[in-house]
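STRUCTURE:
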């Protein structure tokens, strides 16, 4: 038998520097598991510290990366979009994880596995935003999703287990649509590398009948992205999953998984927008308008603040999605600015719900956070009421709070492209949203508290770590006016370096 020659692999093409942020996160997760195997029942603050340290080192690794480098045999792409995506994911995670140090912590925070799964999830999201290979994006998506499902279920209540099952079911459907869409694209172009896909499509678009499979693949991937970003009509899981999850984790899910999938959408649909395939552009705009409008309508009739914030996050996703269809530097830049500002405001609002959470459902048989529970909050917890009001005003887009600038840049990008009717519709949606945000403020400041339940609704779930996180989020929300211009320049320079426009 003739000897088998081994395949020559050029390991220099791994370019491990490009993998450094992801490897840091992966090693951090493995270290936590190994420590738990060696020594049980250690103080769980150790795992919180290790997780924060891991994330801090990963942020440093991201900032040290060189632009437009490739690694892992050219499947990893480190461009400006990848760096922005990783920074938002890591900073959002650093803001979330200190909540595990609260005195009245949820029991899942006492398990080392929680922190290991959390880092595995971040590892998956990092791969999603740092690759233009559809197979690797899919692997990153599934890695993150399979870690997130048990994080929800570990809360170990009937509602959280139901939420995990619903999220798993919808996640499986999204994965199926993503795989089918990628298969169609591969069948048409012979590649899963988005750069190659773009070149092949440019050369073949003049062929008869090619548009049908090309648009079909885009539709399948748009459905997958719609499930993950919570676009209507693929949003069904969102309110129930957020309701069944701990409030801070719900706030985290409303941002981090969505920015990861939005980066994938930017990379993929940029190909179609550059080819000027009008049907795909119009479909994205229509989905965005429908999502923003119907989600606002549903948020108006909610009796629970947590579900209101869930529908609110769906509406915000629709608002941001319009910027994707613009195929402009300002449009793409406004996506990252919006999510960067939304991160602090929305996570802070959900964390405030944790402050007020009680196991007993005193005001409603099902919900923990009905509006009535917040009546008279200004008298029982004036600082908490003011901070929550700041978050609500920011979400409503009231100047000078942070999200006003995000909405302003998105609307400016829409107007610059000449979509005046779309800009008007989105502005009207923002005006409608003011009502349900102000509704909570009215309850907190103007409605009298229920005298029979006033003593047992004191906002006592407090700890230094919780106060620091909420205080920092409120500080960023209030002072955003002073750093918007340099932040937007930083984002614009990175997006421009990616060569999207």
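SEQUENCE:
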């Amino acid at each position: 038998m003739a000897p088998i020659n081994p395949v020559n692999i050029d390991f220099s093409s791994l370019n491990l520097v490009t993998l450094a942020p992801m490897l840091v996160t992966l090693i951090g997760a493995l270290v936590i598991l190994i420590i738990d195997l060696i020594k049980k029942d250690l103080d769980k603050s150790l795992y919180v510290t290790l997780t924060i340290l891991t994330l801090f080192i990963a942020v440093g690794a991201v900032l040290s990366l060189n632009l437009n480098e490739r690694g892992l045999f050219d499947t990893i792409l480190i461009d400006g979009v990848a760096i922005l995506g990783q920074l938002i994911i890591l900073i959002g995670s650093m803001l979330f994880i200190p909540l595990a140090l609260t005195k009245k912590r949820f029991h899942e925070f006492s398990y080392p596995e929680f922190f290991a799964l959390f880092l595995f999830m971040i590892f998956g999201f990092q791969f999603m935003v740092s690759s233009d290979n559809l197979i690797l994006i899919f692997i990153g998506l599934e890695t993150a999703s399979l870690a997130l499902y048990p994080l929800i279920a570990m809360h170990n209540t009937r509602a959280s287990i139901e939420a995990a099952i619903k999220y798993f079911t919808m996640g499986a459907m999204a994965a199926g649509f993503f795989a089918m869409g990628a298969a169609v694209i591969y069948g048409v172009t012979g590649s899963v590398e988005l750069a190659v896909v773009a070149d092949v499509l440019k050369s073949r678009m003049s062929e008869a009948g090619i548009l049908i499979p090309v648009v079909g693949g885009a539709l399948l991937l748009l459905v997958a992205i719609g499930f993950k970003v919570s676009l209507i009509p693929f949003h069904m899981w969102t309110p129930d999953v957020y309701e069944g999850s701990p409030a801070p984790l719900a706030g985290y899910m409303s941002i981090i998984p969505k920015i990861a999938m939005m980066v994938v959408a930017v990379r993929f649909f940029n190909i179609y927008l550059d080819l000027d395939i009008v049907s795909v552009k119009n479909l994205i705009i229509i989905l965005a308008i429908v999502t923003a409008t119907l989600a606002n309508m549903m948020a108006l009739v909610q009796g629970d603040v947590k579900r209101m914030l869930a529908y609110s996050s769906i509406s915000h996703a629709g608002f941001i999605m319009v910027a994707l269809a613009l195929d402009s530097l300002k449009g793409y830049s406004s996506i990252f600015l919006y999510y960067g500002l939304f991160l602090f405001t929305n996570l802070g609002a959900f964390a405030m719900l944790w402050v007020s959470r009680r196991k007993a459902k005193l005001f409603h048989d099902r919900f923990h956070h009905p509006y009535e529970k917040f009546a008279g909050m200004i008298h029982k917890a004036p600082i908490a009421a003011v901070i929550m009001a700041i978050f609500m005003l920011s979400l409503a887009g009231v100047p000078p709070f942070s999200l006003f600038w995000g909405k302003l840049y998105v609307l400016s990008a829409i107007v610059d492209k000449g979509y005046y009717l779309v800009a008007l519709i989105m502005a009207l949606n923002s005006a409608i949203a003011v009502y349900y945000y102000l509704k909570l403020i009215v309850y907190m400041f103007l409605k009298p508290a229920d005298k029979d339940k006033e003593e047992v609704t004191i906002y006592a779930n407090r700890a230094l770590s919780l106060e620091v996180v909420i205080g920092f989020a409120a500080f960023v929300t209030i002072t955003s006016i002073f750093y918007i211009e340099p932040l937007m320049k930083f984002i614009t320079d990175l997006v421009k370096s990616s060569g999207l426009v």
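REMARK: DSSP finds 20 helices and two strands in the chain.
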